[in-house]
What does this fold into?
Amino acid sequence: MCASPIPNEKGDIIGSLHIAVDTTALKKEEHELRKDRRELERQVGLRSEAHRAVSKRLRREIEERRQAEQALRKREQSLAEAQRIAHIGSYEWDMVKGGVVGSEEAYRIFGLPPGSEVAFDRIMELIVPEDREGMRGQ
It folds into this structure.
């Protein structure tokens, strides 16, 4: 509510002007906005908490994976060294694609370029005839 004096020509107050505004709707909207803001802040807090938990879990998983990969590399190096010392190679045969991928020592033994994928039939040609049947699982 607002009031203003109404003076005459001599400056005497002869009345006042009063203005009244119904602020019920405005107050209700302000209340709803405060309520919505509290709810949004609550949700942001929950999401932030969930985000921190997920980030923590991901950091832990990344560290576990890094350690597992490091351990695997160490085992692969040990296996490669053992194969080199014993002059024994190993290979994996992808029966779907038909290719063979071997260890460094297997490539050296067969005289093939290291890391290349070789057809299984080519490997069989490099094995002495009397050992081929055993290699084919017959």
Observations:
- The longest helix spans residues 24-86.
- The two ends are 103 Å apart (CA to CA).
